Amino acid sequence: MWRHLPNLVTGVRILMVWPVFWLISHGEFKVALLLAAVAGVSDAVDGYLAKHFGWESRLGGLLDPLADKLLLLAGFTALTLIGSVPVWLFALVIGRDVVIVCGAIAYHNLIGPFDAQPSRLSKLTTVVQILLVLAELLRLAWFPQLPGQYPFILLAAALTVASGLHYVVVWSMRARQASHERREQESR
């Protein structure tokens, strides 16, 4: 029973997606920031429990990044809707994820199974995107008179584009190599 605790914590984090979106879109920035902080702590807790006690599972490996992505998407969507994040950045963030998912599906269907481990650049991109959402919530909650996070927005945009291109290049090269190896085996 205890071995499912990390997945339960992740499930609770997924349930926080709609409240985070609703709170931001309705101007409840302090509560949204608190809930986002709780989600961040729960992410650390479920990861610790899974690794420390050996309670890692395939389901958890799928749900954990999904929960993170859904929360990030909720934050970006709500902040874009209230005009705090530019639409073009929202489009870049969503576009990158669509390219990655479509590429993964294509690779899986055309080449075969793949190791979906995120690159360091991808992890950095996600961290910067999360920090941007949290910084903007912090600004909106306590310092609304300050200007937006434009330098941070530019950094998030640059990393989003770079990591998206990185995925395309790396997985295209892997697909080419796998295709080449398959042709060699068939010709023997």
Protein architecture, described:
The protein is mostly helical and 188 residues long. The chain has 2 domains: 1-82, no CATH class; 84-188. It has 7 helices and no strands. The chain has helices at 5-15, 17-25, 29-52, 58-81, 87-110, 120-142, 150-187. The chain is flat, with a radius of gyration of 19 Å. The N and C termini lie far apart (51 Å). The mean pLDDT is 89.
Q: Which regions are unreliable across 5 or more consecutive residues at pLDDT < 50?
A: none
Q: Radius of gyration, Cα only, in angstroms?
A: 19 Å
Fraction of residues in β-strands = under 5%
**Number of helix segments?**
7
Number of domains: 2
- Summarize the helix and strand pattern as letters: HHHHHHH
What's the total count of β strands? 0
Counting helices, strands and paired strands, the structural category is: mainly alpha
Judging from the principal axes of the Cα atoms, what is the shape? flat
Distance between the terminal alpha carbons, to the nearest Å? 51 Å
Instruction: Report the average pLDDT across residues.
Output: 89
Main sheet attributes: strand count, strand direction, barrel closure: none
Q: Helix content range of the residues, please?
A: over 70%
Family: Belongs to the CDP-alcohol phosphatidyltransferase class-I family.
Membrane topology: Multi-pass membrane protein
GO biological process, one term: cardiolipin biosynthetic process
Pfam families: CDP-OH_P_transf
